[in-house]
Amino acid sequence: MRLLSDDELKSVRPAETAAFPGPIPTQSVSSDEFMPALQTQKQRRVEARIKEMGNALARKQGLSRRQFLATASGMAAAFVAMNEVYGPLYGVSPAEAADRQMAADRAKSLQDQFIMDCHTHFLRDDTRLIGFVRQREAVGKAGWNPALAGKEQTLEDLKFANYYKEVFLDSDTKVALISGAPSDIVQNWFLTNEMKAEARAKVNRDAGSRRMLSHAIFTPGQPGWLEAIDRAINDLKPDSFKGYTIGDNTNKKISQYPWRLDDEKVAYKAYEKFAKAGLVNVCIHKGLFPPSVEQQFPHLLAYSDVRDVGKAAKDWPQLNFIIYHSAYRFAGGGKVEDAWAQLEKTGRIEWVTDLAEIPAKYGVMNVYGDLGQIFAQSTVADPRVSAAMMGQLVRGLGADHVVWGADAVWTGSPSGRSRGCVGSRSRRTCRRSTASSRSAPPTGRSRTPSSARPTLGSTSTRSVRARHRSPRRHEEDLRGGRGLPEQSPLWLCRAQERMR
After folding, report:
1. 25, 33, 92, 279: which could join 380 in a potential S-S bond, CB 3.0 to 4.6 Å?
2. Single pTM value for the model
3. 158 φ, ψ to 5°?
4. pLDDT digits (tens, 9 = 90+) for 117-175
5. Could you give all domains of the chain from N- to C-terminal order, each with its CATH number?
């Protein structure tokens, strides 16, 4: 679906020729569905510094700049550049950038960390959703994911076989949760609940261990939705349920069944079934609804923020509410500058701060935040925003209530995002943002019993920043039982004078 006018299209350029293909993106790109943001002054400085360090360090190591930036030291150099421009946000030293052996040794010391990706996707075989193909093309052409560069992307890249490769063989992920999204158009469901269960069975059978968990999607208001929950519980045995309060997020213009988490007459009927079945984890899509989207679909705003989370969490303490994307508003056409301006003026970021305040405001300890998409997008656009969100979430929800999710495979293998997450050192900006926020620190919070908590926790946020593992080594791990114990192209950037 094209939303840009002909005049707007004249002001953008193909990302494959206009964006610098470095180890870390230095400019946001988009599809013809929304106008991409201009490269900021700080992003230009980061790009210039990466090029400068890349040239100097590559010469010393007898490599071309392109070759050097593809190494672990090249990745370290990019984080060093970001620290120089934005402040000390990442745990990296110039020595790692200069010494490839030092970078390799650090990576080796982290190689056995457990990573659980609580937010992954692939598409059904008969899918018609080509927009995600354009998204993969974009991140490859823009250099966001070098593994996608120079390779034509097709719908096959978004299906199970490639998902298995990119999540389990090309990344450090040990356990993944397969998710999905509903639609009012049956064929536009990413996967049916049956398809997710089949994928879980195949992965776990092939691995000989519990390497995949699966959602079942529930759709309050749709015809037969309660009966669908019963079938899923009885026949599919999902590990948790997921819902979209916005209704049809794929086709917002026709979304007929938005709903609220705190609707006692509708949503609570589902919670009764979940609790009775012992399925305590309820994953909910929130956020990704910037002002530009609000202008098109103002009637869906009230279903996209977190105003309905607190009461539901308080009324259902036996359930855990995992808020996907941590309700970050400014993605998918939003401006990180708006998020930073809010933070500077008020100490808040819509709707992340609201989410972080829920435990103190409602006296609950069953609300979690997922990092799907928001960590990668905010880190590229302005890592200070990423650091502030991480700080507010950890302070308000608790470190073991912030869970790792990559939202893969929309932008390829999740390895680059997990490596960036472990390098994040957000203390300085976090202290500043939380001190000015109205969030009260969590006090006297007891821990939810392990049987009632997600198998997410703090271990799912630990990851490896700059390690390249061979598919052979990772496949050995996959088969070695290291799982859970039983129990129009997206290629546009804004035209402006570019640095070379």
Report:
1. 25
2. 0.79
3. -105, 10
4. 999 999 999 988 776 666 666 655 555 566 656 666 677 888 898 899 889 888 888 99
5. 6-111 (no CATH), 116-479 (3.20.20.140)
